[in-house]
Amino acid sequence: MLSTGAAVLVQVAPLSASGASSSPTTIAVSQNKTWGPTLTLKNGDTLYRLTADSKNTSVCTSKCATIWFPVLLAKGQKKPVGDGVSKLGSFSRAGGSKQVTYEGIPLYTFSKDKKPGQVNGNVKNSWGQWWSINPKNPLSAPKKSGGSGGTTTTTSGGGIAY
Length: 162
Prior knowledge:
Layout: H1 2-19, E1 26-32, E2 36-41, E3 48-50, H2 64-67, E4 68-70, E5 81-83, E6 88-92, E7 98-102, E8 105-106, E9 108-110, E10 124-125, E11 128-132
Parallel strand pairs: 1-5
Antiparallel strand pairs: 1-2, 3-11, 4-9, 6-7, 7-8, 10-11
């Protein structure tokens, strides 16, 4: 169990380090084989929203933020970059970091997504319901596009196996 916790902490450090880099945070739309158009980081990492969040406000703090990583602006970056995406913004989190939003929706990545294109985070857990984001309908639950195969996965039954 401790090694799992250590793995999570190791993943948090690179995220924070990337937030301090000069490489700008860039949001794109990727075509996912299972879920259709999905917001991602430039590298293909799937972005999620927490339905308990309100516009420009995150309720994911402490332990939550060690599993669901807030997408942050890079150090010195004034606004997020959209690669085929508009309606991006940011707000200040406790501690002063700037979390990226889409239409005011706070954005996160998920620690259980191990490679770009994976969607393991369409789940409900103790923090609430998490969904990947279709930019055409960001406040709705994602719908499977009917594609088969691919590397995309999701947990069944709405839970996370730790």
